[in-house]
Write a structure and sequence with these properties.
Layout (H helix, E strand, L loop, with lengths): L6 E2 L10 H13 L10 H19 L8 E4 L2 H11 L1 H6 L4 E5 L4 H12 L3 E5 L9 H7 L4 E5 L13 H8 L5 E5 L18 E5 L10 E5 L28 H16 L1 H19 L4 E3 L10 E6 L4 H8 L3 E2 L15 H5 L4 H6 E5 L9 H9 L3
Parallel strand pairs: 1-11, 3-4, 3-5, 5-6, 6-7
Antiparallel strand pairs: 2-8, 7-8, 9-10, 10-12
Helix pairs in contact: 1-8, 2-8, 3-5, 6-7, 9-13
């Protein structure tokens, strides 16, 4: 007899598909299989219309029109396109200073390292103990030659919402391009991304109950963007920024996922908040320490350390009951101490004990008594 699957608590790594998304994708696979670049026949035109509708749905989440959306394979590619794609115009203007943070995803930090090797000066700002970066630190770091400010919307490990609206206000009057990696917050924290001072937004479908393998770079057209160059070539699709045949069924799924994220925003948020409330009630007698300020954290994430007990021991004790991670899933194959929690100046023992639980409106609630009893046995 097969054992039941553990409860899935790793939604910051990836989310399950919404039924509506799956239905729309299956229909697209069956009926909308034409190449969206083929404009001479009905099959291509229908695919092109489906892509246009999805662009409208993805752009609407941040209050923009369809032509703001460039489809990519996901937020990692979007981050690379945003950061590396600006390098040429920045060099041409003699502005080679970049501001970002120590808690960014590797999909931002590694492209920044590549630019540093090309002679760019990169300032990485630390977070406070809350897990958030101080907007005043961004203001202090700004220089006349600052070409780019890149600050994530929500941290993937702690769930802490970064003050990108406040940073956007600070940047009014400065020519720096403002980019945000919104992989964790797009569709979950709606208002911030509508700020008209944010120029570039990187998003992924699989973080909002859509398919893996599709994302977007959303570009708000302003005078600050002097030119965004592609990072690879061949075909000229996506206005020359991202060549390759468009994956129409994935794009359709992304569009539906984006639309339902807005439609169901309040109910999803309320379910996640109720889940967190019961989770904290169950864990509070155990003496856990929460890593990050819960008052500025998405209601679907909890990063905590349990009595300095190694995170691997916690995972082992619960592995057949709940599935979760002890860091960023994108780099977990080479596990090391979290650069995010280390940047928050937490003790190594706390960082080594940290686990991340992330859930959604679709998550089946586990028996909290089972979890609490198993954790108590680790002491």
């Amino acid at each position: 007899m097969t054992s039941p699957l553990p409860v899935y608590l790793d939604c910051n790594a990836t989310t399950p598909l919404e039924d509506e998304v799956l239905v729309a994708m299956m229909d697209a696979y069956r009926t909308t299989f034409g190449n969206a670049g083929s404009r001479t026949h009905r099959y291509g035109l229908e695919a092109s219309h489906a892509v246009r509708k999805a662009r409208e749905q993805v752009a609407a989440v941040v209050g923009l029109e369809w032509d703001a959306v460039t489809f990519t394979s996901g937020a990692t590619e979007s981050n690379n396109l945003a950061i590396l794609g600006l390098a040429g115009s920045a060099e041409a203007m003699g502005r080679k200073h970049i501001i970002s943070t120590q808690i960014e995803h590797k999909a931002v930090l590694e492209p920044l390292e590549a630019l540093s090797a090309r002679g760019f000066e990169v300032t990485l700002l630390p977070p406070s103990s809350t897990g958030a970066v101080d907007p005043a630190a961004v203001q202090s770091a700004l220089r006349p030659d600052t070409a780019l400010v890149s600050v994530m919307q929500v941290n993937n490990e702690t769930g802490v919402i970064q003050p990108i609206e406040a940073i956007a206000e600070i940047l009014h009057g400065h020519p720096a391009v403002f980019h945000t990696d919104a992989a964790q917050g797009y569709g979950k924290d709606l208002q911030q991304l509508c700020h008209d001072r944010i120029d570039l937004i990187s998003v992924s479908a699989h973080k909002i109950f859509g398919p893996k393998g599709i994302g977007a770079l959303i570009v708000r057209q302003t005078g600050r963007l002097k030119g965004l160059s592609p990072v690879f070539f061949g075909g000229g699709q996506e206005r020359g920024l991202r060549p390759g045949t468009l994956a129409v069924p994935l794009i359709v799924g992304f569009g539906v996922a984006a639309s339902t994220a807005v439609r169901d925003y309040a109910s999803r948020r309320n379910r996640c908040m109720a889940f967190r409330s019961r989770l904290l009630e169950a864990l509070s007698p155990l003496g856990i320490s929460v890593n990050g300020d819960l008052s500025i954290t998405l209601p679907s994430t909890l990063n905590f350390s349990y009595d300095d007990i190694d995170s691997e021991a916690v995972i082992l004790a619960l592995k057949d009951y709940v599935a979760f991670s002890n860091g960023s899933a994108c780099t977990s194959a080479n596990y090391s101490l979290s650069h995010v929690l280390t940047a928050m100046n937490l003790p190594n023992s706390t960082v080594n004990a940290a686990v991340r639980w992330s859930w959604s409106h679709m998550t089946v609630e586990p028996d909290w008594n089972v979890i609490a009893n198993r954790l108590l046995r680790l002491k």
